[in-house]
C-alpha cells in the first residue's frame, strides 16, 4: 500500500505565531525522506498535521488522495513516533508491544520482540522506568514493527547512544528492503543520518526551502581540495560554505555547480573535486542570517 | 463502518478493563474503611455501606472522567484511532462501568444488610421508598452523569486554557446541582444558604427523563469539544 503525500499551501499558526507558512510539496510513496530544519523550523508542526494530531490553520494535506484528519482508513496506516512523555505509562514494555499489535493492522510482533532484544530493552520493566535512550528504543521498536505505510520518526533517537543509533539505522534500511514504505525522518543530526535519505526536504523558519534527491542535492556544491594557494586562487568569486585546512592542504566547500571548463581548470591545477556534504549544505541554507 | 464499530468496541473493552480494575481497587478500599470504622467506632451510628458507596462513587467517576480526557485520548489517537472512535468507545466504557457498579455494589450491600440482621434500612434506600431497583438505577444514572461531567471538564482544559476550563467547571456544577434536585437533595444543604428553599417534589418519570436529557447534553458538549481537538505532543 503506497500512499502518496501532498502538502498544499499548508500553514500552522499558534495564536499570532506562524510555525508553518504556505508549505507545498509532494512525497511519493515508498521512499525514505529526510526532513531537515533547525530547532523551531516547524518540522513537528508539519508532521503533526500529517499524523492528524491537528488540523492545518489553512491549506490542505492529502494522503493517498484523501485528507487524513479523522479518516479512520488513513489514520491507522500512519505511525507518528516522537519523543512521547512516558512518565505516566505504567504498562510494561511487553504490554506496550502487545497493545500496539492489536491496533496496527500490519504489526509484526515477532519482529518487535527481535528488535527489543537487539536494543536490550527489558521487556518486563514498566515503560516509565526506562531511561530516556531506552524509551527512544521502545519508540523505534514500535515504529518499525508497526510497518505502517507512512512512518514518521520525529527526532526519535533522543538519548540513544551511538551503538543503539547504529542499530536503528541498520534495521531501518533492512526493513525498507523487506517491506518498503514511506519513512519521514525528521532530524538535525544530518551528518550522521544523511546516508539513509533517498530524498531530502529542508524547511527553515516555517517555510519550504527545497526538496531534492540526495544525489542531486550534494552535487549542488563542490569541495575543492589541494595546496592552499591554488585553492584560494581557484575559488575566487565563488560562494564558500566551509573551509578546512590541514598544513598546506586546504579543503573548501563552494556552493553552485562548476562548468566543464572550470572542472578541467581545477584538474590542470592539481586540485581534487568532490561532492559536498549534506550537512554543509544544510548549514548554509539554514544558517544565521539566512532568511527566507 | 464495520471497521469503525470494531475500533470503538476495542477501545470500549480496553478502557472498561482498565477503569474497571481501578473501580475494583476503589471499592475494596471503601469496604475496608467501612469495616475499620465499624470495628473502632461502635458507639456512633454508622453510615451503611450502600450510602457511603452511593455518594463516594460520584467523586471517583468524576476523577476518572477527567483522566479519560487526557491520557486515553492522546494514547488512542497516537495509535491511529480517530477522535470519533475514541468518543464512542469511551462513552461505551463509561456506560458499562455505570452498569457494573450497581450490579456489584447492590448484592454486596444487600448481603451486608442481611448479615447485620436486617436492621434499619440504608439511609439512601429509605429515600427511594426501600426500593433497591430504583435506588440502584438512580445510582447508575448519577455516576454516569458524574463521569460525563468529569470528561467534559477535562476535555475543556485539554482543548482550551484554564479560563475556559473554569467556565466548564461552572457548567458542571450547575449540571450536578440540577441532577441532585432530580434525584436526592444531597447537596440541598449547600445551596439552601444562597437560594430560597425549594421543595420540588420530583416524580420518578421526571427524574429519569431529566437525567436522559442531561446525558444527551453532556455527550453533545464532549463531542463538540473533542471533535477536532489538537492532540498534545
TrEMBL record, chain A:
Keywords: ATP-binding, Nucleotide-binding. The keyword Cell membrane does not apply. GO terms for molecular function: ATP binding; ATP hydrolysis activity. It comes from the Bacteria. SMART domains: AAA. InterPro entries: AAA+_ATPase (IPR003593), ABC_transporter-like_ATP-bd (IPR003439), P-loop_NTPase (IPR027417). Coiled coil: none annotated. Gene3D superfamilies: P-loop containing nucleotide triphosphate hydrolases (3.40.50.300). Residues 5-230 form the ABC transporter domain. This is ABC transporter.
UniProtKB/TrEMBL annotation, chain B:
The chain crosses the membrane at residues 21-39, 59-77, 89-112, 132-150, 162-183, 203-225. Keywords: Membrane, Transmembrane, Transmembrane helix. This is Tat pathway signal protein.
Amino acid at each position: 500500500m503506497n500512499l502518496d503525500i501532498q502538502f498544499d499551501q499548508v500553514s500552522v499558526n499558534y495564536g499570532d505565531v506562524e510555525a508553518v507558512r504556505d508549505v507545498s510539496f509532494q512525497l511519493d510513496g515508498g521512499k525514505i525522506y529526510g526532513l531537515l530544519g533547525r530547532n523551531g523550523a516547524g518540522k513537528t508542526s508539519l508532521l503533526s498535521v500529517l499524523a492528524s494530531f491537528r488540523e492545518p490553520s489553512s491549506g490542505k494535506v492529502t494522503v493517498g488522495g484523501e485528507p487524513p484528519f479523522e479518516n479512520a482508513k488513513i489514520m491507522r496506516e500512519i505511525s507518528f513516533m516522537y519523543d512521547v512523555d512516558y512518565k505516566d505509562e505504567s504498562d510494561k514494555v511487553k504490554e506496550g508491544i502487545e497493545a500496539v499489535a492489536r491496533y496496527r493492522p500490519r504489526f509484526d510482533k515477532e519482529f518487535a520482540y527481535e528488535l527489543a532484544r537487539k536494543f536490550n530493552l527489558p521487556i518486563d520493566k514498566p515503560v516509565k522506568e526506562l531511561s530516556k535512550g531506552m524509551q527512544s528504543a521502545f519508540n523505534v521498536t514500535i515504529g518499525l514493527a508497526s510497518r505502517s505505510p507512512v512512518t514518521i520518526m520525529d527526532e526519535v533517537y533522543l538519548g540513544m547512544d551511538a551503538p543503539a543509533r547504529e542499530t536503528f539505522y541498520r534495521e531501518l534500511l533492512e526493513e525498507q528492503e523487506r517491506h518498503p514504505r514511506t519513512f519521514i525522518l525528521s532530524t538535525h543530526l544530518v551528518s550522521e543520518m544523511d546516508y539513509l535519505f533517498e530524498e531530502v526536504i529542508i524547511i527553515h523558519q516555517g517555510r519550504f526551502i527545497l526538496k531534492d534527491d540526495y544525489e542531486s542535492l550534494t552535487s549542488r556544491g563542490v569541495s575543492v581540495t589541494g595546496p592552499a594557494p591554488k585553492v584560494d586562487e581557484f575559488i575566487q568569486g565563488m560562494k564558500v560554505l566551509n573551509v578546512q585546512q590541514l598544513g598546506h592542504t586546504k579543503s573548501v566547500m563552494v556552493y553552485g555547480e562548476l562548468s566543464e571548463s572550470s572542472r578541467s581548470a581545477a584538474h590542470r591545477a592539481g586540485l581534487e573535486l568532490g561532492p559536498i556534504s549534506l550537512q554543509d549544505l544544510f548549514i548554509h541554507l539554514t544558517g544565521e542570517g539566512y532568511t527566507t | 463502518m464495520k471497521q469503525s464499530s470494531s475500533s470503538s468496541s476495542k477501545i470500549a473493552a480496553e478502557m472498561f478493563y482498565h477503569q474497571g480494575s481501578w473501580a475494583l481497587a476503589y471499592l475494596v478500599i471503601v469496604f475496608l474503611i467501612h469495616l475499620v470504622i465499624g470495628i473502632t467506632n461502635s458507639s456512633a451510628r454508622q453510615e451503611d455501606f450502600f450510602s457511603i458507596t452511593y455518594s463516594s462513587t460520584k467523586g471517583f467517576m468524576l476523577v476518572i472522567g477527567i483522566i479519560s480526557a487526557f491520557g486515553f485520548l492522546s494514547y488512542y489517537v497516537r495509535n491511529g484511532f480517530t477522535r470519533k472512535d475514541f468518543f464512542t468507545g469511551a462513552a461505551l466504557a463509561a456506560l458499562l462501568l455505570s452498569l457494573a457498579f450497581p450490579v456489584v455494589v447492590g448484592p454486596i450491600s444487600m448481603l451486608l444488610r442481611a448479615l447485620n440482621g436486617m436492621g434499619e434500612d440504608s439511609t439512601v434506600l429509605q429515600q427511594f421508598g426501600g426500593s433497591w431497583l430504583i435506588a440502584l438505577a438512580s445510582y447508575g444514572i448519577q455516576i454516569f452523569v458524574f463521569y460525563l461531567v468529569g470528561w467534559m471538564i477535562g476535555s475543556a482544559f485539554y482543548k482550551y486554557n484554564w479560563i475556559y476550563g473554569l467556565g466548564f467547571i461552572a457548567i458542571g456544577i450547575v449540571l450536578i446541582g440540577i441532577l441532585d434536585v432530580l434525584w436526592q437533595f444531597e447537596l440541598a444543604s449547600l445551596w439552601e444558604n444562597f437560594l430560597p428553599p425549594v421543595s420540588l417534589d420530583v416524580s420518578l418519570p421526571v427524574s429519569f427523563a431529566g437525567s436522559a436529557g442531561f446525558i444527551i447534553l453532556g455527550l453533545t458538549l464532549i463531542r463538540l469539544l473533542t471533535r477536532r481537538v489538537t492532540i498534545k505532543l
